[in-house]
Design goal:
The chain has 314 residues and is of the alpha/beta class. It has one domain: Metal-dependent hydrolases (TIM Barrel, Alpha-Beta Barrel), CATH 3.20.20.140. The protein is 40% helix and 10% strand. It is built from 13 helices and nine strands. The strands form two sheets. Strands 4-5-6-7-8-9 form a six-stranded parallel beta sheet. Helix 8 links the parallel strand 6 and strand 7. Helix 9 runs parallel beside helix 11.
């Protein structure tokens, strides 16, 4: 499976959506962070060539307001503001920033994070009380196990609320001590009601995480960078992967990693369309499924897709 050319400009996305009957875009993997944190993240990507990886030029390097305007012009109706703590003491002030951002931008989805530290459960509970609709956990950057006992209370509270957690847990683009399929498999077995959205579809272990999603009704995949021109160079999709996703039913949601992507936003949409799964599938991925997960379609947060997602054969 090869990525399509980057031929669709961002300015053409609204017409592209109308042609396919897609009401709009809900992007569950967008980052807005305090500026000093965002600059450090961009600095990391500016130096990836030093580690022998392809250049990663940031496509949307601008102010918060410039980037909000870019998303709106593209046709993004709702977007997350995912930040993630990588040391103790960060989570609360990142959550404060995210809450203030969401209060100032009605199309921003209130987002939050937590970290394995004393009081993590209280931090998660406070974020929920302030209206958080989604959490972000980054296992590789944070360098912690999702099974850390210090996270137990946070997982329990988030699971009880049915609030989805976008979790970067795969071994790519960069692996870590605690990344990979097995810790996440253990996590969902320990907290079966926990709603997890696997960032980057768990790349490069695409098939393993797809099977996990098929077996667990509250495990979803996001499309962040999956199948794009950049990612096909370092973590190409396995043959038949589009059919695997089709078999999952409404268990796939749009993610893009905006703004820190090395190609136009529209390219991710081209990739999804190029898999040939039909306009109805695109409506689910870009609109219906993320809205259901966020509880903004009347079904409530974390509503299960168990009745429509088949279980993979043993």
């Amino acid at each position: 499976m090869s990525a399509p050319a980057e031929s669709l400009p961002d300015t053409a996305v609204p017409a592209w959506l109308r042609e396919r009957g897609v009401p709009g875009i809900v992007d569950l993997h967008v980052h807005f962070m305090p500026d000093r944190v965002q600059q450090k993240v961009w600095g990391f990507f500016d130096r990836v060539e030093e580690h022998g990886e392809p250049a990663w030029p940031i496509r949307y390097r601008g102010t918060d307001e410039e980037r909000v305007a870019q998303l709106r012009a593209i046709g993004v109706d709702r977007f997350t503001t995912l930040s993630y703590a990588h040391r103790p003491g960060m989570a609360q002030w990142l959550n404060d920033y995210a809450a203030e951002f969401a209060a100032a931008h009605p199309d921003a989805i209130p987002s939050a994070t937590f970290y394995p530290e004393p009081g993590a459960g209280a931090i998660a509970e406070r974020a929920l009380a302030r209206g958080a609709k989604v959490f972000k956990i980054h296992v590789q950057v944070g360098d912690f196990s999702p099974l850390d006992p210090l996270l137990a209370e946070a997982w329990e509270r988030v699971a009880a609320a049915g609030t989805p957690v976008v979790i970067h847990c795969g071994n790519g683009p960069h692996g870590g001590r605690y990344t990979g399929l097995e810790p996440v498999r253990a996590l969902v077995e320990r907290y079966p009601s926990l709603v997890l959205v696997i960032a980057h579809a768990g790349l490069p272990d695409y098939l393993g995480f797809a099977e996990l999603s098929a077996r667990h009704p509250n495990v979803y995949l996001d499309t962040t960078m999956v199948g794009t021109s950049y990612m096909e160079r370092i973590a190409p999709l396995p043959p038949g992967y589009a059919e695997v996703l089709a078999d999952l039913g409404p268990k796939v949601v749009l993610g893009t990693d905006f703004p820190s992507i090395p190609y136009p936003y529209a390219h991710q949409l081209e990739v999804l369309d190029g898999w040939g799964l039909g306009d109805g599938w695109l409506v689910d991925v870009l609109w219906s499924t993320p809205r259901r997960l966020l509880g903004i379609d009347g079904s409530g947060p974390g509503a299960s897709a168990a009745t429509s997602a088949p279980v993979a054969p043993a």
